[in-house]
Amino acid sequence: MASKRGKTYFSYLVNLVCVVLLFIVLTALMKAGVINTYWAGVIMLIMINIILATSLNLTTGVLGQIALGHAGFMSVGAYAAALFSMKIAEAAKLVENGAPTAAGFGTFLASLVVAGIVAAVFGLIVGIPALRLKGDYLAIITLGFGEIIRVIIENVKFTGGAQGLSGIPKLSNFNTVYWVTALTIAVLFAFGRSRHGRAIIAIREDDIASEASGIPNTYYKVLAFTISAFFAGVAGAVYAQQMQVLGAKTFNFMRSIDILVIVVLGGLGSLTGSIIAAVGLTVLPEALRGFSEYRMLIYSVALIIVMIFKPSGLLGTREFSMSAFLRWLRHPQIKRKKAAAERGSGK
Amino acid sequence: MDGLFVFINQLINGLQVGSIYALVALGYTMVYGIVKLINFAHGDFIMVGAYLALFSVPMLLGAGLPAILVIVLVIVMSVIGCSLLGMATERIAYKPLRGSPSLSVLITAIAVSLFLENLFMILFSSASKPFPAIISANPISIGKIQTNAVTIITIALSIVCMIGLQLFVKKTRMGKAMRAVSEDAGAAMLMGCNSNVTISMTFAIGSGLAAVAAVMYCSAYPLVNPYMGSMLGLKAFIAAVLGGIGIIPGAMLGGFVIGLVESLTKAYISSYLADAVVFGILIVVLLVKPTGILGKNVGEKV
Amino acid sequence: MKKLLAVTLAAALAAGFVGCGGSGTTSGTTSNAASGSADAGETIKVGSLAPLTGSVSVYGITTVNGIKMAVDEINANGGVMGRQIELLTEDEKGEVQDAVNGYNKLISDGMVFLIGDVTSKPCDAVAKIAAGDGTPMLTPTGTAPSITQNGDNIFRTCFLDPFQGQIMAQFAAEKLGAKKVAVMANSSDDYSDGIAKSFVAKAQELGLEVVGDERYGADDTDFKTQLTKINAAGPDVIMFPDYYEKVALITNQARQIGFTGQMLGGDGWDGVLTSLGENASVVDNCYFSCHYFIGDTNEQVANFVNGYRSLYSEDPTAFSALGYDSVYIMKAAMEKAGSTDKAAVLEALRATDYTGVTGHMTFDENGDPIKSVAVLRLENGATVLDTMMTADGAEDSAPVASESASSAAAASEAAASSEAASSAAA
C-alpha cells in the first residue's frame, strides 16, 4: 500500500517537474526570439484549444455523451469576461506598454472566475433538461442550445449585437495562460481519478447498472456537464482577452464541431490524447498555410484516414504517462512483456 | 381583411420553405433509419446535385429539347450523379467504420462534408453562380393570395416522394431487407439478406432524394455555391428529428412544421429571434417526446 | 497492417509539424534582421490579409485580385523607388483568430506595410495589434468605425458604414421623394447591421416614416416572410444593405411577393447583376451607393476595368477597385517619404491627396477617407451613374450634393446626364 502511494506521489512529482521544465524552455525560447510573435500567438491558441478540448473530454469522453454546444458555453464565458474587464478598465489602468499591470493581472484572474461561473450556470440550466436525453438526441439538443445562445447574443444590446465588442483589454499573456491551462488539466485529471470521476465512468460503461448500484446518475451527469461548461467559459475568457474583439459569429456550431474533432481524434476519455490532438490540430492548419486553398482539403482527408484506421482516436482511452515513460526507458523489458500481453489479448 | 390575406400569404411562404426542408429531411431520415448514421454530408450532396444540375441545364437546352423534358432530364441526371456519389462515399468512408463508436462515424461524416465543400470551392471557386430559371418562379395570383409554380411543384414532389418511399420500404423486397437490416444487421445477414447491398441502396436513394431537393431548391433560390448545403442540411436534419427520425412521414411533417414556425415567427413575433424560436421548439418537443412527434416510445431493454 | 499505416501517418504528420515549425522560425529571424536595414536593392515586402477560403472568401479573392493587379503593374513599371514590391498574402478564413495569426506571420516574414484586412471584425482585431507595433495599415474594405480609432497608423480606403446609411436615407428623401421607408438587414453581420441602423436614424431625422425594420440570419436564403410583412406596410423604398450574393436572392424574392417600389443598397451591391444572371431586370430602377462607377469614361477607371477583365476574365467589383487604389496610395506615400521607414511613410500617408479609380480622396484625422460617393442606378441589366454625392463622413449635418454640388460632382453628373451608359454586365 505504502509503495503504491509512493509511486503515485513520484508520478505527480515527475509531471510537475515536466510542466515547470516546459514552461522554462518555452519562456527561454521566446526571450531568445527562436519562437517569434507568430508562433507565440499559435501557442496561445493551442492552450485555449487544450482547455476547450480537455473540458469537453469530460462530457464526451468520460461521461460518454455527445455534446455539440461547447462553443455556446465558450461564448458566454467570453462575453462575461469581456464585459467584466471592460467595466473594470473604466476605473483602473489595466494595461501599460502592452503588458497587464498588477491590477490587470488581478482583473484577469477574477474575470476567469466570473466567466467560469456564468458559463457553469448556463451549463446547469441547459444540462438539467438536456441530459435526460442520450446519444444523437443529446447531440441535437445541445446543438440547439448552442445556436440559441448565439442568436440571443447577436440580438441583445449589452453584448453589442451584431457589432460585437471591441476594445477588450489585452490581459491574456503567455505566463498566466500557461499556468491556467496547467491548472485546468490538473483539476480535470484529479476529478477523473476521484470517487466522482469513477462514478461518471461507471455511467458511461453502463448507466442502468450504475443506477442500480446506487450512483445518482442525473446528479453526476449534470455535475460533469457543468464542470465542462465552467472550463469552456474559462477558455472563452482567455480567448476574449487575447483577441480583444468579439463577435457572436465566431462561436457558431462549426466551432463546437472543431472542438469535438479534437476530442475524438485524441481518443475519448484520454486527457493526454486531447492535449496532443489539440496541439496537432492547431498546428496543422498553420503548417499548411503555404497551401492556402488546399489546407482544408488536406485536413479533411487526414481526418477521414485517421478515423478509418484508428476509430478510437490516437490514444484510445489510455493516458500517456510521463513516469511510465521513464520506467519504460529504464527497463526496456517491460516493453517486451507488454507487447506479448497485447498480442495475447488481441487474439 | 388585409391582415388575413397577409396571414395566408405567410402560411404559403412557410409551406414553400417547409416543402424544401421536407424533401431534404426525407433523405436524412432514410439513411438514419437504416444505418443509424447522422449523415452530415447530406447537405453537401445537395450542393453537388445543384452543381450537376447547373452544368446539365445549358447542355440540355443547347440540344433544343422542350422545357418539360429538360426539367425531367436535369432531375434524372443529378439523381444518378448524386446516387453514385452517395454510394461511393459510403463505400470509401463509412463502410470501414461499421461497428465503430458512433462518434467516429459522426466525425467522418463531418470530414466528408468539409472535403466536398472545399473540393468544390477549389474546382468552381467560392463565387455563387446564378441558376437558370427552368421552372418559373413568377408569382401566380389568386385574388390577393400569391404563390408560384416552384412552390406548388415542390410540395407535390415532396408528397410523391414520401408516398413512393413509404410504399418502397413497406411493400418491396428491398424495402423489407432495409427494415430487417435496420432492426438487426447480423440477424438479417443470417437470413440471407446482403446487408452491404442493402446499405449501398439506402445511400443511393437518400442521395438521389438530395438531388431532387437540389433542383427544387435552386429553382426557388437561384444561386449555387459550395457552402449552400451546410445550413440547409442542418435545418432539414432538425426537421427530421422533430418529426421522428427514421420515420418517413415524420420527416415530411417535421419539414412543414419547421417551415411554418419559422415563417410565422418572423412575421408575428420577431425576425431577429426566428432561429432561436425554431431551436426552442425543437428542444421542447425533444424533452416532451424524445423520439419526435411521430416517434414510437421504445422501452429500454435491460 | 492498419496499425503500421496509422503509425506511419502519424509520424509523417509529426515530421510535417516539426519541419514547418523549424522553417517558420528560421525565416522569421532572418527576415527580422533584413527589415531592419532598408537596403535599396531589396524588395519591399507588402502584406495582404484576406479571406481566401471559407464562406466570405468570394469578397476576399476579388479584393486580392485588385491588389495583385496593382502590384504587378507597379513592378512592371519599375517598382517603388526602384525597388520591386513583394506581395505576401495570408488567408484568414473570415475568422478573427486566423486573421491575428496571419498578421503575426506577415510581421515575422518582414512585412513593412499591410493592405488589409477585408472584413470588419477580423480587421478590427488586426488593427489592435498593428496599433501596438506601429506598422502602417491601410484597409481597403473594413467599414466598421472602430477600426481606424485603434491608432494613428491605421487608415482605410472605403467609406464607413454610418456614412452610406445616411447618404442613402438622404437620397431616398431628397431625390426619390420617398415618404415611407423600410430596411432589412443581416442580423449577424456588422456591416449590414451598421448601415441599417444609421439609415433608420437618418430617415427618422429627415421626417420619413420607417414602416419596417427586419432582420435575417447569416445563412438564410428565404426572405419572403419578412418581405411580405414589410410590403404589407406599404413602403415607397426598401433598403437592403448586404453583399451582392444575398442581395441577388433578396431582390428577386421582393419582386416575387409583389413589391413594386424602389430598392436601395450600399457598396456591397456592386456585382449584383452577375449574381442575378438572367433575372437582372428585377433590380431595374434601383439605386446603390458605391465607390466608383464601372462604366466611367475616365481614363484611369477604364484602364483599370479593362485590365482587370483581361486578367481575370470577369468584372471587377468595388472590392477590387478599393484593393487596387490602396496599393497606389501606399506607393504614393512611400515615394513621398523616400523610404519605407514607418514614421516617414505614416507622415506621408496622413498627407495623402490622391485621385484613383474610386475618386479623389484625402484622410481625416482618424485615418478615414474624405471622398465623394457615387450613387448608381441599375437599369436594363446595366449600371448607370446617377449622382455624385459629397459629404463629410464624420458629420451628420453635412450638405449633400444636389444641384449645388462640388465641381467634381458636377462634372460626374454631366457625364451621367449624357448617359454614357456602358453596360456592366455585358
Automatic annotation (TrEMBL), chain A:
Location(s), subcellular? Cell membrane
Q: What Pfam families does the database record attribute to this sequence?
A: BPD_transp_2 (PF02653)
Q: Name the residues that span the membrane.
A: 12-32, 38-59, 66-85, 105-128, 135-153, 173-191, 219-239, 259-284, 296-316
Is the keyword Cytoplasm assigned to this protein? no
Q: Where is this protein chiefly located?
A: membrane
GO MF term list? branched-chain amino acid transmembrane transporter activity
Keyword field:
Cell membrane, Membrane, Transmembrane, Transmembrane helix
Q: Name one GO cellular component term.
A: plasma membrane
Q: How is it placed in the membrane, per its record? A: Multi-pass membrane protein
User: What's this protein's name?
Assistant: Branched-chain amino acid ABC transporter permease
From TrEMBL, chain B:
Where it sits in the cell: the answer is: Cell membrane
InterPro entries to which the protein is assigned, alphabetical? ABC_transp_permease, BCAA_transport_permease
Q: Which GO terms describe its cellular component?
A: plasma membrane
Methyltransferase recorded as keyword: no
- Please give one Pfam family short name: BPD_transp_2
Whether Lyase counts among this entry's keywords is no
Q: Please give the superkingdom of this protein's source.
A: Bacteria
Q: How does it sit in the membrane?
A: Multi-pass membrane protein
A GO BP entry is: L-alanine transport
A molecular function (GO) held by this record is:
L-isoleucine transmembrane transporter activity
Keyword annotations: Amino-acid transport, Cell inner membrane, Cell membrane, Membrane, Transmembrane, Transmembrane helix, Transport
**Which portions of this protein are annotated as coiled-coil regions?**
none
The cross-references to PANTHER family, in alphabetical order and at most eight, read: BRANCHED-CHAIN AMINO ACID TRANSPORT SYSTEM PERMEASE PROTEIN LIVH, HIGH-AFFINITY BRANCHED-CHAIN AMINO ACID TRANSPORT SYSTEM PERMEASE PROTEIN LIVH
Q: Which family does it belong to?
A: Belongs to the binding-protein-dependent transport system permease family. LivHM subfamily.
Q: What is this protein called?
A: Branched-chain amino acid ABC transporter permease
UniProtKB/TrEMBL annotation, chain C:
> Where is region (Disordered) located?
394-413
Q: Where is the composition biased (Low complexity)?
A: 401-413
Extent of the signal sequence: 1-20
Q: Which UniProt keywords apply?
A: Amino-acid transport, Signal, Transport
Q: Which stretches make up the Leucine-binding protein domain?
A: 43-381
Instruction: Give yes or no: UniProt keyword Signal.
Output: yes
Under the heading InterPro entries, the entry gives: BCAA_transport, Leu-bd, Leu_Ile_Val-bd, Peripla_BP_I
Tell me the Gene Ontology biological-process terms attached to this UniProt entry: amino acid transport
- PROSITE patterns linked: PROKAR_LIPOPROTEIN (PS51257)
Q: Which domain of life is it from?
A: Bacteria
| UniProt family annotation | Belongs to the leucine-binding protein family.
Q: What is this protein called?
A: ABC transporter substrate-binding protein
**Organism from which the protein derives:** Anaerotruncus colihominis
